[in-house]
Amino acid sequence: MALSFSFSLSTSVALVGSLVSPTSTPCVLRPVSGSIVGSFRAPDCPWCPGNVSVDFATEPGRPVGAPTPGTVTFAGDVAGTSYVSIEPEGWVEHLVTVGGVEPVVAVGDRVVFGQRIGRADGGIVGLSLRRPGVAGPEYLDPLGRPAQRVGRGRLVPLDGTAWRRFRARVACPDSR
Questions:
Q1: Which domain holds residue 63?
Q2: Whole-angstrom Cα distance, residue 56 to residue 172?
Q3: What are the pLDDT tens digits along the chain (176 aa)?
Q4: Residue 139 lies in a domain
Q5: Count of domains in the chain?
Q6: Is residue 43 a part of any domain in this protein?
Q7: Total-model pTM
Q8: What is the rounded (10 degree) CA torsion for 9, 1, 173, 85?
């Protein structure tokens, strides 16, 4: 079953709820709208087979948003694929990585939910979450604690009358 999610990267965002909980993973927002074409499959060991990301279908050139607020720790190419890695606020040693993105951010930049971090450089954008483990990196389901944009529907005039954008909020579940 393919899931679809849509949001506007140009909408301003306010954070609602807690980002930090010692018993859960960071709150993560989907970086692009589009259906899931590859699900997370945890590997049995750090270097065993599996899919350490959730992969989303998209179109080349589409905007890619920050899945979590934090600090950019890497923005560049690895083996021919472009990545942006973000250390989430309040989550020491966790790393959220978006792959398949031409970065418009640099190392050290602070980002917020949904802020444009680049554009898709192909038809797939991947999202992964990891933390250090005893025998190497431990990969976690990046959608294990999904953030959600919340707001109410709004009618927009069709006659060209000016209207004001509402301020979207991002809600994070307290625990999972």
A1: 28-144
A2: 21
A3: 443 333 333 333 333 333 443 445 678 889 998 899 999 998 888 778 988 899 999 999 999 999 999 999 999 999 999 999 999 988 878 899 999 999 999 999 999 988 999 999 989 999 999 988 887 888 888 888 777 766 666 676 777 776 665 556 777 766 43
A4: yes
A5: 1
A6: yes
A7: 0.73
A8: -50
